[in-house]
Design brief:
By secondary structure, this protein is α+β, with helices and mostly antiparallel strands. It has helices spanning 12-25, 48-57; strands spanning 2-6, 30-34, 39-43, 62-64. A 4-stranded antiparallel β-sheet has the order 2-3-1-4, covered by helices on one side. The termini are close together.
């Protein structure tokens, strides 16, 4: 499981955009978002760096949670 803090995820639209960006990269990814804590958890075999890049391309600033 890959986890990011995405402080600029502030609304339902953001959640949808983030989910779309990740599933465009991996259609089988399991995406769990927690809007109040700005956390995004992703179950995928795609490397963390690629997921982070997809989020950045979508206009967000992901910070890896280790």
């Amino acid at each position: 499981m890959i986890e990011f803090e995405v402080k600029d995820m502030t609304c339902g639209h953001c959640v949808g955009a983030i989910t779309r960006a990740i599933t465009a990269l991996d259609p089988d990814a399991k995406v769990h978002t927690e809007l109040p804590t700005h956390r995004v958890r992703v179950g995928t075999s795609v490397p963390r760096a690629q997921v982070a890049h997809a989020l950045k391309e979508a206009g967000y600033t992901p910070t890896p949670v280790l």
